[in-house]
Design a protein that fits this description.
Layout lengths: L1 H15 L17 H4 L12 E2 L4 E3 L7 E3 L8 E6 L4 E4 L5 E4 L2 E12 L11 E2 L2 E2 L2 E9 L6 H4 L6 E11 L3 H7 L11 E5 L14 E6 L10 E6 L3 E4 H10 L28 E3 L5 H29 L6 H17 L2
Parallel strand pairs: 1-8, 2-16, 11-14, 11-15
Antiparallel strand pairs: 3-6, 4-5, 4-12, 5-7, 6-7, 7-10, 8-9, 10-11, 13-14, 13-16
The structure holds 2-acetamido-2-deoxy-beta-D-glucopyranose (2 copies) and zinc ion.
Keywords: Glycoprotein, Lyase, Membrane, Metal-binding, Signal, Transmembrane, Transmembrane helix, Zinc
Organism: Xenopus laevis
Protein name: Carbonic anhydrase
């Protein structure tokens, strides 16, 4: 009995000694099973989240994101790789961002996407809307920590920029990545590509964004990320999106059961007690105003309906009186706005 107990204990710890449990986005290794091997995935401060009205708060102190070294020379190079979960581009340590009070050094960027038949694969959503895809530019707090792997376990360790992707016109900067993915279709394949201006992968406006404290969206899900998700998406063409959705595999080139790399996004996580700060106000105010207007219109419509119903059940001689009531009702509702 005792021996059996020991044997049962030995099994999981033996597995834990291996470099990492495999995980995916569907099937038995899908995200429901992540917390079994990665406890933080079942914990608090998880990402992604939906950005919706009642958890947003305007913060006038949020400054535009300050980039430095983002215009990488073509004499430098990036390594583009298929890591079995996404396509990842290693960045150079001269690329940095500043979010007061810390400087963060860039480490890598990678993408999340859906599938050709359901081309919606962003991780963060806005008012419940999922975008076509999302880019994450991962940085670590280099004022406090020596490298990414140390920083990722600390609550103030990482800063990730999230860029939503929408379909529209051809994007020549994204093409520098997308034109190369045919060369890294299988897990563990990699190639070198020439440096370029990574700023061009970001939206025009760096002053409008959502900011909150969350986590890595993949195992081990450490709650160490200061998230900045830009309000405006970047645009790529439908052909470019389809190339991303169809070229890659999670499995290596030998695999007898190839798994397509699609829908590599995590489900929305509960925001719990968290609020999301927003750096912009116009648009938010407009949305609230529109919601109020809609509410007033609905109330007015009901009032009218109610009065009509009453009116039709009254004698014609009461008409003048009723008309006065309608006007008074409208006035009262309007003054509440
Ligand atoms: C980026 O650097 C290249 C030369 O390496 C230069 O021609 C270009 O103007 C720079 N772009 C920006 C936005 O600074
Ligand atoms: C393909 O399979 C062989 C034999 O199992 C293995 O030695 C080799 O490393 C595999 N190649 C790749 C790219 O995984
Ligand atoms: Zn990501």
């Amino acid at each position: 009995m005792y021996l059996l107990f020991l044997a049962l204990l030995a099994l999981p710890s033996g597995q834990a000694a291996s470099p990492g449990h495999s995980w995916g986005y569907s099937g038995s290794k899908g995200e429901e099973s992540w917390p079994k091997n990665y406890e933080f995935c079942g914990g608090v401060y998880q990402s992604p989240v939906d950005f919706h009205q009642n958890i947003l708060q305007y913060d006038s102190t949020l400054q535009p994101i300050k980039l430095s070294g983002y215009n990488v020379s073509s004499t430098d190079s990036f390594t583009l790789s298929n890591n079995g979960h996404t396509v990842q581009m290693s960045l150079v340590p001269t690329m940095k961002i500043e979010i007061e009070p810390f400087h963060y050094t860039a480490s890598q960027l990678h993408l999340h996407w859906g599938q050709k038949s359901t081309p919606k694969g962003s991780e963060h959503c806005i008012e419940g809307k999922r975008f076509a895809g999302e880019v994450h530019v991962v940085h670590y707090n280099s004022d406090k920590y020596a490298d990414l792997s140390t920083a990722m376990k600390e609550s103030d360790g990482l800063a990730v920029l999230g860029i939503l992707i929408e379909v529209g016109s051809f994007n020549p900067t994204f093409e520098k990545i997308i034109s190369q993915i045919q060369n890294i279709r299988f897990k563990n394949q990699k190639i070198q590509i020439a440096g370029f201006g990574v700023r061009e992968l970001l939206p025009e406006r760096l002053d409008e964004y959502y900011r909150y404290e969350g986590s890595l969206t993949t195992p081990p899900c450490y709650p160490s990320v200061l998230w900045t998700v830009f309000r405006n998406p970047v645009i790529i063409s439908e052909e470019q999106l389809i190339a991303l959705e169809t070229a890659l595999y999670c499995t290596d080139s030998n695999s007898s059961e190839p798994v397509e790399m699609t829908n590599n996004y995590r489900q929305l996580q509960s925001h719990g007690e968290r609020l999301v700060s927003v750096s912009f106000r116009e648009g938010l105010v407009l949305t609230i105003a529109l919601a109020c207007l809609l509410a007033v219109l609905v109330i007015m419509a009901f009032t009218c309906l109610l009065i009509r119903t009453k009116r039709s059940s009254r004698k014609p001689s009461d008409n003048r009186n009723v008309a006065y009531t309608v006007a008074a009702g409208v006035e009262e509702n309007t003054s509440k706005v």
